[in-house]
Amino acid sequence: MSEISVETVPAGFIPVPTGLGFTDTIQPSYRRIEGDSVSFGLVVQQHHGNLMGICHGGVLMTLADIAAANGVNVARGVLAGSPTINLAVDFISAARIGQWIQADVHLVTVKRRFGFCSGAIVNGQGVVARFNGTFYLPDHKGMVKPGAIGDRTPGFLGE
Prior knowledge:
The chain is mainly β. The chain has one domain (14-136): Hotdog Thioesterase (Thiol Ester Dehydrase, Chain A). It is built from one helix and seven strands. The protein has one helix at residues 57-76, and strands spanning 14-15, 30-34, 37-43, 84-91, 100-110, 114-123, 126-136. A seven-stranded antiparallel β-sheet has the order 1-2-3-5-6-7-4, covered by helices on one side. The longest helix has 20 residues, at 57-76.
């Protein structure tokens, strides 16, 4: 049995806060938001894996959803919930235990009540998956209710 090498978190990424509900299932995860550039990533660990010993598709989809929604929010300049209307993910190659993967947002378009985002999840060997998402942009102050999970936790936008 070969030993698993563990890649490190690249410079510029900071930990995503815990206490954000379902997002905690892919912890430890990291974010880098610089200007309008948005990336979220993680080192694939055993609990992220499936029976084949590679990163589970649900982890990849969760990472894509988080990155895309935050890409839309960064483009809008707001810290608010943006519920997912649709998320399409094309799985291209495997991410192995110990590998660093990151979801990079490539293109964001914001319309009156909808945000559209595309990007890719990559590792050191290339593209693992590509994604496209559509998000609802509410016309009221955020989607987080006072006292709910996330209300007491610093937001994804680094606040």
